[in-house]
From TrEMBL:
Keywords: DNA damage, DNA repair, DNA-binding, Glycosidase, Hydrolase, Lyase, Metal-binding, Multifunctional enzyme, Zinc, Zinc-finger. Its cofactor is Zn(2+). It comes from Microbacterium caowuchunii. The keyword DNA repair applies. Belongs to the FPG family. GO terms for molecular function: class I DNA-(apurinic or apyrimidinic site) endonuclease activity; damaged DNA binding; oxidized pyrimidine nucleobase lesion DNA N-glycosylase activity; zinc ion binding. It holds the Pfam family zf-FPG_IleRS. Residues 2-81 form the Formamidopyrimidine-DNA glycosylase catalytic domain. GO terms for biological process: base-excision repair. It is an enzyme of class 4 (lyase). This is DNA-(apurinic or apyrimidinic site) lyase. Its EC number is 4.2.99.18. InterPro entries: FPG_cat, FPG_N, H2TH_FPG, Ribosomal_uS13-like_H2TH, Znf_DNA_glyclase/AP_lyase, Znf_FPG/IleRS. Residues 298-332 form the FPG-type domain.
Length: 332
């Protein structure tokens, strides 16, 4: 499932390429035909992300809410104005160096994604881009316009230059402004949306009164927005925190540290497009991590491998119907 950084990046893509433009809408699959007919011909006014949910505002107080869930993805094609803070040299929804510096040569990871780029001026690129948990895509010069529909497309949004196809979302619905606010009110704080101090206070207060295991609380979108399976495992390890400790038993300063660390990692994720959770890497190790997902994390997806800190085998268990990776020694 896409975690918070991916959804914020998608919202930025919509902000640059759809907001301020009149949009044609259709539902090739037919499952959102009525909603698409209401959106068709309206101007897109705003795009925002809160946690794992994205909201697109259209004329006449009409909002589109999308939750990608486990299988959803946005495919972008056409002439795309790329946000320089998330752009990559080959036109994919790209990345910058964690330290914000430009590197001369692109690095393709094991999924073929270019993960290092300049942070120069916005540019237009005729590309095809998939926006989901793992961002991939190939540049397509001179492609047919509008592009042919491929597969089960729930919703197609189209301007004169840019096309966005939505596939397999958990939620795709129209909402009124009051309904949007009610949806957001149910979500926990998002470091990129809420006031940082207020968000920290709200998160800390909720966690500190809950008897639920902290490993479950971090995945509860009513407690904190945007954290998924990867970030949960990595945040807990970075805090050296046992996932089974009840939230109310976690020291207050540790809870506050989790919020601040999530704020930092989320920002890095939006800037780089990668869930990079290892710190203070040398340039060579940084490039290696961008080239291989296996080198970006402390514990995630490392079951049975030695802990990078103590050498103990990383444990894999199920928590909240999701896989949890942790070190039984460092996180004892």
């Amino acid at each position: 499932m896409p975690e918070g950084h991916s959804v914020h990046r998608i919202a930025r893509q919509f902000d640059r390429n759809f907001v301020g433009r009149r949009v044609s809408a259709s539902s090739p699959q037919g499952r959102f035909a009525e909603g698409a007919s209401l959106l068709d011909g309206r101007e897109a006014l705003a795009a925002r992300a809160v946690g794992k949910q994205m909201f697109l505002e259209f004329e006449d107080d009409l909002w589109l809410r999308v939750h990608l869930g486990l299988y959803g993805a946005w495919d972008f094609s056409g002439e795309i104005l790329v946000d320089p803070t998330i752009a990559s040299a080959n036109g994919r929804m790209g990345q910058t160096n964690q330290r914000g510096t430009a590197l001369d040569e692109p690095v393709l990871d094991d999924a073929g994604e270019n993960s290092l780029t300049s942070i120069g001026a916005p540019r237009r690129a005729r590309v095809h881009v998939r926006m989901s948990e793992q961002t991939t895509g190939l540049a397509e010069e001179g492609a047919e316009w509008p592009p042919p529909v491929v597969g089960q497309v729930r919703l197609r949004l189209l301007t004169e230059l840019t096309c966005a196809d939505l596939r397999g979302p958990t939620a795709c619905q129209l909402q009124t402004p009051d309904e949007v606010q009610a949806t957001i009110d149910k979500l926990g704080p998002d470091p990129l949306v809420d006031d940082p101090t207020a968000g920290e206070e709200r998160f800390t207060a909720v966690v500190r009164r809950k008897p639920t295991a902290i490993g479950l609380l971090l995945m509860d979108q009513n407690v904190v927005s945007g954290i998924g399976n990867v970030y949960r495992a990595e945040l807990l390890f970075r805090a050296r925190l046992n996932p089974h400790i009840p939230g109310r038993d976690v020291p207050e300063e540790t809870v506050r540290g989790l919020w601040r660390d999530w704020s930092r990692l989320l920002t890095i994720g939006v800037e780089t497009g990668q869930m990079m959770t290892m710190d203070d890497l040398s340039p060579d190790r940084w490039r290696a991590a961008m080239a291989s997902r296996d080198d970006r994390h402390w514990v995630y997806h490392r079951a049975g491998l030695p802990c990078r800190v103590c050498g103990t085998a990383i444990v894999l268990e199920e928590m909240g119907a999701r896989k949890l990776y942790w070190c039984p020694s460092c996180q004892a």
